[in-house]
Amino acid sequence: MGSKREDYISWQEYFMGVATLASKRSKDPNTQVGACIVDKDNYIVSVGYNGMPIGCSDEEFPWDRSGSTLETKYAFVTHAELNAILNSKTADLAGATVYVTLFPCNECTKALIQKRVSKVVYLQDKYHDMDTTEAARRMLDAAGVIYEQYTPSGRKVEIEL
Fold it and tell me: Which of 3, 26, 42, 48 maximizes the CB count within 10 A of its CB?
């Protein structure tokens, strides 16, 4: 009887890899974010990425980062975490973990808390010093939601599509 493979990826590498792959679906020219929600038994229950809502054309709505509210993406784009929540085929996310490529904003944090997600694993925190990110951390702390930065293993996984 042979022995098992030793070079398989860990659960964290797998789930962050799925979130990273999902981010590649985003059409945002500046920031591509992906999210993967996993239940207590390590089953993926949903995946999302940042993009326009269904029926809102990626060609007709703005992707700009500056200008009036209606000239920028901010009033229109659905974030990866919220898309993952809305895409979930189960309403029960209590105890789930979300793997996300960017620390959640305050609005997504509210939704994650309301859905009883218990842990957030994030890859990047490039908006760490913004008030909205501070608000997100305060809410996560108050709600007892664990959050931790993913430590990349440096492992390369190649897929051919």
Answer: 48
